[in-house]
Design brief:
This protein has 2 helices and 8 strands. The relative contact order is 0.21. The radius of gyration is 15 Å and the shape is globular. Helix 1 packs antiparallel against helix 2. It has one domain: 2,3-Dihydroxybiphenyl 1,2-Dioxygenase, domain 1, CATH 3.10.180. Helices cover about 20% and strands about 30% of the residues. By secondary structure, the chain is of the alpha+beta class. The strands form 2 sheets. Strands 4, 5, 6, 7 and 8 form a 5-stranded mixed sheet that branches. It has a 3-stranded antiparallel sheet with strand order 1-2-3. The termini are far apart.
Length: about 120
């Protein structure tokens, strides 16, 4: 039981760039019903990885970053951790003039994104 060690290592490297940390939940804590790792700000996880079948179809997860520098760091950390480029950091004006995002496929092929909506 448990989350994929390679997925956890990937997200352990990437999520701190946007201020998120890992909270691990063990099977003992849930009475054997769940084991996984949640990532979030201030010890409040909002993104979880765990066990189960692979997701079928397209999956796109966007994480809010507080700055453009955090988006850049997210992208660099994701690529360094084995992710695949799906759109380097930059303005995506077709969404709105201050939409600064970066896109990466994680190790399981999910499209993940960090986005900052603030002007420079």
């Amino acid at each position: 039981m448990g989350h994929s060690p390679k997925a956890k290592a990937f997200y352990d490297a990437v999520m701190p760039t946007i201020g998120a940390s890992c909270v691990t939940v063990t099977a003992a804590e849930t009475g054997g019903t769940y084991e996984g790792a949640g990532y979030g700000v201030g010890g409040k996880p909002s993104f979880w990885i765990g066990i189960g079948a692979r997701t079928k179809g397209s999956l796109h997860i966007a994480f809010v970053a507080e700055s453009r520098a955090a988006v850049d760091a997210f992208y660099a950390a994701a690529i360094a951790a084995g992710g695949t480029d799906n759109g380097p950091p930059g303005i995506r004006a077709h969404y709105h003039p201050n939409y600064y995002g970066a896109f990466v496929f994680d190790l399981d092929g999910h499209n993940i994104e960090a986005v900052c909506h603030k002007p420079e």
